[in-house]
Amino acid sequence: MRALVVDPQAPAALRLAEVPEPTPAPAQAVIEVHHASINYGELNGARSGQMPPGAVLGWDASGVVVEAAADGSGPPPGARVVAFASAAWAQLATVDANATAVVPTAVDLADAAALPVAGVTALQALRAGGPVLGKRVLVTGASGGVGRYAVQLAALAGATVVASVGSAARGEGLAELGADQVVVGLTGIDQPVDVILDNVGGPQLVEAWGLLAAGGSLQSIGWTAGEPATFPPYATVGAPKSLTSFTVTGNRGADLATLVTLVAEGSLSAEVCWRGSWDRVAEAAQALFGRRLTGKAVLDVG
Ligand SMILES: NC(=O)c1ccc[n+]([C@@H]2O[C@H](COP(=O)([O-])OP(=O)(O)OC[C@H]3O[C@@H](n4cnc5c(N)ncnc54)[C@H](OP(=O)(O)O)[C@@H]3O)[C@@H](O)[C@H]2O)c1
């Protein structure tokens, strides 16, 4: 089969190649991948040399089950599904039954492919911050994949949402998604916030920490800034508040099912802002690293 493999010499360190078909474990289905999306994390892994040449990457896949899990778990052959995979940028992928959700007919498979990493991250990070009804939630990196879902889910959960972006242009569309205030950097936030979903890290994380109310929670999701964070003396002393490392855990299939249902109902927008054939992956990656994407890029898998 064909797959995108890591190649340090190729644009975006990825090229199409022939690779062996994957062998499923007993609790894994095999899906024919129709669409896959890209995330900052796996693209950064490819370009930084963390992933070995020849490796097949990709976490977000949607498509059709061609072989059900041998242990009887998960959807049957023919089901339209979306999944958290480990080698999704391929014509066939193995997916854990508990990391897969059936896609309602009302939802386009290309939209579904945008959801796994970014959507489940936004959902779980928001949940980790505690109930937000009537609370103020700050989302940093709100223009990106995780950010645009986090803004929508926090608004759906009843929060007052402050969306932080890198420039006024990057804030476009966020008010329509539910942001009550869109700020450039952290300028103009004149009241403390109760929950921070931080996708940026670096000096902005330190500044955000200073805006967190007593009893508040900062979920450290990502570090796109790529710069260190230096806390001034005593910044972490005083009224209790928490900074928590975040990673996706638990039953990702159930969370994916929640997300596709919200999309089917029209309560959540998949925010696909770029779509093209997977042989254009380098173009999509350049747009992502160049901070020109406003949402998710979805690849059509040949
Ligand atoms: N912990 C986990 O389990 C987990 C899961 C998913 C994602 N992540 C991490 O969360 C972060 C966000 O992921 P994503 O998929 O939403 O990424 P994305 O779509 O690329 O969005 C990231 C946003 O960060 C902002 N940003 C600030 N400084 C940046 C810089 N120096 N370079 C690039 N972007 C910068 C950009 O917004 P502006 O241009 O408006 O500033 C951009 O829209 C990434 O670091 C990712 O690795 C972690």
Automatic annotation (TrEMBL):
GO terms for molecular function, please?
oxidoreductase activity
Entry-linked InterPro entries: ADH-like_C, ADH-like_N, ER, GroES-like_sf, NAD(P)-bd_dom_sf, Zn-ADH-like_protein
Instruction: Give the superkingdom in one word.
Output: Bacteria
SMART domains per the UniProt record, alphabetical: PKS_ER
Residue ranges occupied by any Enoyl reductase (ER) domain in the UniProt entry? 9-299
Protein name, as recorded: NADPH:quinone reductase
